[in-house]
Amino acid sequence: MSQLYALLVGPFADMAGAPLFLVEVLIGGIASGLLYSLVALGFVLIFKASGVFNFAQGVMVLFAALTLVGLLERGVPAPLALALTVLVMIALAFAIERLVLRPLVNQEHIILFMATIGLNFFLEGLGEMVWGANVKKLDLGIPDESFKFAGVLLNKLEMTAAATAAVLVAVLAVFFQKTRIGRALRAVADDHEAALSIGIPLRTIWVVVWSVAGVVAIAAGIMWGAKSGVQFSLSLIALKALPVLILGGFTSVPGAIVGGLIIGIGEKLGEVYWGPLVGGAIENWFAYVLALVFLLFRPQGLFGERIIERV
Amino acid sequence: MIYREAGQFKTTYAADQAIFPIAQDRWLVLAGLVLAFVVPPALASEYWLQAVLIPFLVYALAALGLNLLTGYAGQISLGTGGFMAVGGYAAFKITTSFPALNIVAVFLLSGLAAAAVGLAFGLPSLRIKGFYLAVATLAAQFFLVWLFNKVAWFTNYASSGTITAPPRQVLGIMVTGPEATAGTRYVVALAMVVLFALIAKNLVRGRIGRSWMAIRDRDIAAEIIGVRPLRTKLLAFGVSSFYCGVAGAELVFLYLGSAETLAFDINLSFLVLFMVIIGGLGSILGSFLGAAFIVLVPIFLANAPHLLGLGLPVALQKQIELMIFGGLIIFFLIVEPHGLARLWQIGKEKLRLWPFPH
Question: In order of start, what are the domains of chain A with their CATH numbers?
Answer without folding.
Answer: 11-297 (1.10.3470)
